[in-house]
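User: Please fill in residues for this 832-position structure.
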């Protein structure tokens, strides 16, 4: 196939970025023009409204769609009230006043695009009173003294709501603005409150607590994430797709810290409508914190087991009096040992974002975040002896010399533009530029991918002493247009978008000279650093994807929503590897797809305002780089996801629940081809495509406020994968998991005391290894929390993890990794 130079691709990408983001780039000069932002008019252009008399809740929902305004409300203020409706051409604020006439509810203007609703004060005439701009409680705030939500430009922000769920519309699944109950797929939201309560400080901490997600870890800094029998390799930053490359272990997404994120949305099942190429397991969308219109912030410190020390600082607020220009900065530093000998971690981050209202219909945002990760040594223990028997080493053992390290520096640059258009249409453009630099030097126990090297009798084992680097560059763009469609006397919704993702990864590794054999029983993690290194291999990855998609929510009758969508994708993937110094065993894979169509269909039927039934179909394709026995690249994996279920939203949408039944069918899944090698190579394993792999399962979850002050997150997952002959595969993934976490707030000495606890239960798993099995039985891990708030600003908390000190593996194979023993973390937080 014709080769295209990297410089040519870079030039094309830069042209696309310039075309899509010219408005956002020009707005980078905005801080020099505060007068322009302050003079933005709050007047609303006239629009056509057609909202018949109905319940106030329904009328406000319709008004939000027709006006494009962001609406929040005090708790319970809309329930049981009737609206007279509104009809005709007028300004949005005038229409809202008419809509609320006689209801006992008034509105408060936040800015040119946002209003909040509350109970009207009594007046002589009994009419409602319009108030000036004030700060209001977020729609998701709990009762009984819950904190106010931040006065943020992000109407769906979970920070400050003290909620384990969200009632705000999201677009992760289809691009359309759908609430959790309106989305015909399984999606979980890990809120800022949940992350703070359980001290989930890394993305992998979050995923371990997410319903339906299974997390494993190899002996390095690489994690395996799966859902519904498939890998989860799609990560988005504010909706912009990034690529994950496990082969070279350069996976910054799983090493990221959570301090700069407001929430993390996890969609399970095929995601081809939004991601194009990818595995049918799901996707993870990381939503960054945004600036707030009022000054706020916090200082926090954590001290825990194994010399764990961490400090965070977050400050946000306006740069001009009106709040039209605002900024936020987050900083974090962490230093800790671990329960494993010779293995420690250091990390830090800096995040800065500035946002501005150019006019009352135009918003721009730019941000930079830098994350530094410095682990030393290597986690895990040998999982099996060379004779095939499973090991049973103490949890304190590890596999690496402490002089080794794996250094990651990750930079993200993001730009965003939001432009509200006439007739309630919205244009958005987002771009994310990621650069990752990785340098590693290590000496660690190294089994091959299919064999163990540890002799049970003598303790003799092989050490891989290596040195190398990798550099990764990614650019992603998402441009979308969305708004209402009026057809056949009813209002529908349409979303169209273009996205572009380009990825480069250059990797090189060298092998240390000298002896590479140790006695694992007596080495005590001591291994001399080699005096020199010999080049071992170079590897180069190139990935480019661009696509256009469209989705529509059609409302043929009241209570019925039909969601249809499709995507056209162009895809290029190259993988080139050379074994050095001879150059023998070089491999080259080239996979392309043009005009690949990915369909999507969903149906949501509202039984009433709390309950809905849904069904959906989605599919995806994943080009592969593996070669078969003839040296040909395997055909793309094709996956389909069929799902039916029930969803419910209760307590003014502060409690969400769902039950899903699903089946995932995958064809062309690559598996080892009976020990055959790729022609012309000496150690490159050949693969063959397998058809008919089926995964079936059940997922049930409940998230949110059950009663005032009582938050719950509970889930149950059952999943089984079988091949075309009906034999169970992927036995290392548990059939059944239960994840439970709950907190309750008491009043002690007139101050809040929060107590919480939970348990994660996992069924038995095993990994077939030659004639043996690497296995463990079912296990449960319990955790506790206690937090006392001394005043409105100062609080202290204690978390106890693995309360009963359960021994268990998070990964099992030739190299296995234990879960953390019992540990304690204390936190002091000062907020302002």
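Assistant: Residues filled in for all 832 positions:
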């Amino acid at each position: 196939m014709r080769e295209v130079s990297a410089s040519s691709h870079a030039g094309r990408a830069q042209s696309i970025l310039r075309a899509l983001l010219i408005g956002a780039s020009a707005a980078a000069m905005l801080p020099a023009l505060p007068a322009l932002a302050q003079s933005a008019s709050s007047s609303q252009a006239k629009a056509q409204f057609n909202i018949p008399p109905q319940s106030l809740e329904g009328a406000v929902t319709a008004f939000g769609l027709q006006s494009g305004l962001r609406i929040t409300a005090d708790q319970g203020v809309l329930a049981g009230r009737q609206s007279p409706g509104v009809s005709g051409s007028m300004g949005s604020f005038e229409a809202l006043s008419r809509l609320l006439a006689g209801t006992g509810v008034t509105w408060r203007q936040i800015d040119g695009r946002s209003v909040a609703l509350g109970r009207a004060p009594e007046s002589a005439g009994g009419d409602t009173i319009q108030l000036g701009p004030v700060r209001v409680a977020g729609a998701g705030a709990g009762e009984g003294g819950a904190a106010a939500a931040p006065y943020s430009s992000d109407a769906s922000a979970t920070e400050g709501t003290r909620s384990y769920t969200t009632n705000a519309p999201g677009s992760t699944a289809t691009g359309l603005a759908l609430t959790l109950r309106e989305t015909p797929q399984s999606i979980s939201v890990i809120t800022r409150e949940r992350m703070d309560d359980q001290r989930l400080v890394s993305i992998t901490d979050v995923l371990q607590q997410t319903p339906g997600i299974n997390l494993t870890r190899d002996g390095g800094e690489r994690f395996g994430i799966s859902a519904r029998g498939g890998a989860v390799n799609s990560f988005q930053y504010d909706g912009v797709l990034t690529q994950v490359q496990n082969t070279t272990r350069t996976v910054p997404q799983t090493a990221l810290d959570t301090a700069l994120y407001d929430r993390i949305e996890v969609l399970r099942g095929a995601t081809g409508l939004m991601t194009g190429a990818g595995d049918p397991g799901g996707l993870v969308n990381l939503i960054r914190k945004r600036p707030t219109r009022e000054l706020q912030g916090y200082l926090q410190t954590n001290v825990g087991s194994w010399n764990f020390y961490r400090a965070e600082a977050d400050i946000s607020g306006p740069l001009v009096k009106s709040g039209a220009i605002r900024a936020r900065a987050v900083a974090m530093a962490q230093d800790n040992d671990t329960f494993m000998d010779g293995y420690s971690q250091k990390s830090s981050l800096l995040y800065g974002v500035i946002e501005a209202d150019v006019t009352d219909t135009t918003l721009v945002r730019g941000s930079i975040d830098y994350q530094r990760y410095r682990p030393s040594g290597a986690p895990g223990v040998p999982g099996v002896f060379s004779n095939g028997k499973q090991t049973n080493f103490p949890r304190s053992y590890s596999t690496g010399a402490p002089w080794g390290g794996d250094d990651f520096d990750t930079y993200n640059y993001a730009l965003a533009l939001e432009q509200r258009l006439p007739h309630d249409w919205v244009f958005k453009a987002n771009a994310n530029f990621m650069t990752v630099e990785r340098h590693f030097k290590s000496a660690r126990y190294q089994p091959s991918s299919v064999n163990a090297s540890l002799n049970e009798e003598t303790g003799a084992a092989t050490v891989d002493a290596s040195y190398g680097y990798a550099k990764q560059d990614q650019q992603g763009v998402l441009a979308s247009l969305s708004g209402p469609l009026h057809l056949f006397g009813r209002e529908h919704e349409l979303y169209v978008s273009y996205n572009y993702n380009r990825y480069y990864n250059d990797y090189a590794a060298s092998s240390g000279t000298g002896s590479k054999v140790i006695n694992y029983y007596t080495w005590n993690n001591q291994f001399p650093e080699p005096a020199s290194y010999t080049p071992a291999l170079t590897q180069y990855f190139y990935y480019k994807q661009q696509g256009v998609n469209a989705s529509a929510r059609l409302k043929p009758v009241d209570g019925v929503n039909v969601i249809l969508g499709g995507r056209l994708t162009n895809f290029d993937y190259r993988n080139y590897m050379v074994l050095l110094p001879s150059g023998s065993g070089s491999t080259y894979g080239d996979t392309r797809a043009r005009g690949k169509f990915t369909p999507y269909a969903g149906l949501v039927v509202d039984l009433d305002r709390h309950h809905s039934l849904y069904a959906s179909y989605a599919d995806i394709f994943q080009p592969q780089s593996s070669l078969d026995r003839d040296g040909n690249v395997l055909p793309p994996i094709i996956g389909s996801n069929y799902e039916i279920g029930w969803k419910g939203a209760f307590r003014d949408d502060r409690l969400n629940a769902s039950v899903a039944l699903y089946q995932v069918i995958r064809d062309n899944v690559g598996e080892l081809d009976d020990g055959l090698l790729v022609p012309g190579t000496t150690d490159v394993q050949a693969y063959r495509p397998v058809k008919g792999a089926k995964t079936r399962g059940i997922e049930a979850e409940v998230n949110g406020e059950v009663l005032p002050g009582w938050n719950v997150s509970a889930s149950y997952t059952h999943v089984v994968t079988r091949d075309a002959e009906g034999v169970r595969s992927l036995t290392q993934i548990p059939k059944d998991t239960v994840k439970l976490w709950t907190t309750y707030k008491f009043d002690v000495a007139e101050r809040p005391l929060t107590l919480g606890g939970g348990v994660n239960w996992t069924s038995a798993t095993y990994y077939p290894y030659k004639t043996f099995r690497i296995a463990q039985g079912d296990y449960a891990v319990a955790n506790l929390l206690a937090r006392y708030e001394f005043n409105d600003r100062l609080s202290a908390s204690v978390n106890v993890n693995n309360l009963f000190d359960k021994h268990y593996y998070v990964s099992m194979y030739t190299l296995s990794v234990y879960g953390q023993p019992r540990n304690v973390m204390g936190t002091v937080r000062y907020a302002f």
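For context: The longest helix spans residues 6-20.
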